[in-house]
């Protein structure tokens, strides 16, 4: 079950790396603007904020990945703590998005599903 939790956490991390790329690298591109429902003017006006926000997503992914590596080398306590910190924060951010911006429900669910599954499976793995 630790392997399943690690795979789910890795998928969540990869999704957040992709979000980092959209927010910090391609924010003003037509495809990213369409994904976020932004006009060119809105994307330009929010570019600095998005750049910063993208790095938050990258850092959460890095925490989860370091936790996965720790789990893989047998450091169960450290690995589990880091995976919980990374994917738990991803899940919390998705819940904040869902509560504060109900019109972005689909994005919140997309952003939060893999972290939620990783948390559940890791809790089960540690409890069994």
UniProtKB/TrEMBL annotation:
Database matches in InterPro entries: DUF1304
Domain of life where this protein originates: Bacteria
Pfam families: DUF1304
Keywords: Membrane, Transmembrane, Transmembrane helix
UniProt key word Transmembrane helix: yes
Chain segments annotated as transmembrane: 54-73, 80-101, 107-127
Protein name, UniProt field: DUF1304 domain-containing protein
Organism: Protaetiibacter intestinalis
